[in-house]
């Protein structure tokens, strides 16, 4: 099967900007960035499947089948305690971005060793949370539903004197 990732328009734009960044140009991140951009299926955030890792998603993953790790994919702004974030400016963070649960990405790490990264679970995805907020703020249109059961007096016939 052909390698692919699913990125929101925002995440795709971030990768393109990173590729143009002079501080990234001569790093091991460039081949991973190029693979991600070349194989990306770009979608609007409303259309991102719930099992895909996007920026600010909390994910559980494994490296070469070793123990699990859970982190939040970040854009490298440190606003939480160390160890909670996995910036997409790192090889592993970049590898996870756009993967679906159960999907793997193989890369060569900074020690020139091949690593197989498996995305196990997307625990939280901002796009999914946004869809829930929007649907919660839009109450259902009751005119589109089946008629509700009405309990009340029978309609009055024959002039209103109660006779039928």
Short synopsis of the structure:
The chain is an alpha/beta fold and 164 residues long. It is built from four helices and seven strands; from the N terminus they run E-H-H-E-E-E-E-H-E-E-H.
Task: Give a structural overview.
This protein is an alpha/beta fold and 164 residues long. It has one domain (5-130): Chitinase A, domain 3 (Roll). The strands form 2 sheets. It has a 5-stranded mixed beta sheet. Strands 1-2 form a two-stranded parallel sheet. The radius of gyration is 25 Å and the shape is elongated. Helix content is 25%, strand content 24%.
Please write out the topology.
Layout: E1 5-8, H1 9-20, H2 29-39, E2 40-43, E3 58-63, E4 68-74, E5 85-87, H3 91-96, E6 104-108, E7 114-124, H4 126-137
Parallel strand pairs: 1-2, 4-5
Antiparallel strand pairs: 3-4, 3-7, 6-7
Helix pairs in contact: 1-2
How widely separated are the two ends?
74 Å
Mean pLDDT: 85
Our estimate of the beta-strand percent is 15-25%
What would the principal axes of the Cα set say about the shape? elongated
Strand order of the largest sheet: 5-4-3-7-6
In the CATH hierarchy, the architecture is: Roll
Rg to the nearest angstrom? 25 Å
Oligomer: single chain
Q: What is the N-to-C order of secondary-structure elements (H for helix, E for strand)?
A: EHHEEEEHEEH
Kindly provide the name of the CATH class.
Answer: Alpha Beta
Helix content: 25-40%
């Amino acid at each position: 099967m052909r390698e692919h990732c699913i990125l929101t328009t925002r995440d795709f734009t971030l990768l393109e900007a990173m590729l143009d960044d002079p501080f990234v140009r001569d790093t091991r991140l460039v081949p991973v960035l190029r693979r991600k951009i070349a194989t990306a299926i770009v979608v609007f955030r409303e259309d991102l499947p719930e099992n895909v890792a996007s920026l600010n998603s909390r994910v559980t993953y494994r490296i070469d089948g070793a123990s699990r790790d859970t982190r939040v994919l970040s854009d490298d702004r440190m606003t939480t305690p160390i160890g909670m974030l996995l910036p997409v400016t790192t090889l592993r963070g970049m590898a996870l971005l756009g993967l679906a649960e159960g999907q793997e990405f193989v890369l060569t790490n900074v020690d020139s060793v091949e690593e197989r990264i498996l995305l196990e679970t997307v625990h939280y995805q901002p796009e999914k949370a946004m869809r829930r907020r929007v649907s919660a703020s839009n109450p259902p249109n009751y005119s589109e539903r089946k008629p509700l059961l009405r309990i009340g007096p029978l309609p009055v016939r024959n002039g209103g004197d109660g006779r039928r």
